[in-house]
Amino acid sequence: KLFFTDYGNAAKVERCDMDGMNRTWIVDSKIEQPTALALDLINKYVYWLDIYLDSVEVVDYQGRKRHTIIKGRQIRHLCGLAVFENYLYTFNSDNLSILRINRYNGTDVQSLAGLDNAKEIRVYQKRAQTPVRSHACEVDPYGMPGGCSHICLLSGNYKARTCRCRTGFILGSDGRSCK
Fold it and tell me: FRET label pair with 71: which of 41, 49, 149, 172, CA 20 to 30 Å apart?
């Protein structure tokens, strides 16, 4: 799945398959400017930062079990969001510091380090990387991902895929080659 935020005409958090199909709103109320998103891949939770409401909230992948982690002045001016183990990590652009927030109750907020400037934050740790099983976009014996001549996008599950073409090309009748 691909998860993303939008705060155009109607602010929301959405998800879709990697090929853009099955687009679903998972949060569309009491939300104003969702600017950062983080996923708990193990427990299937979506965390987002709303810079207008000065809040960090969470829902499950279906948009249920919504609750606020933390809200208020102490989290103004935040950029980016990452989740690892029991904490959320974000960057405060006002005092140029990395913050660590307890993701279960929001009470344990600590400034970890200072940086000159940042707009995003990511946690890279071997335990945070889920194992990859074989999937429909693996390279075939001819070097083509999923048998697609240009672009292979996973569909509703890891066994299904959709081929797409680069700009200026159209997909052939075989659903794999681009002309």
Answer: 41
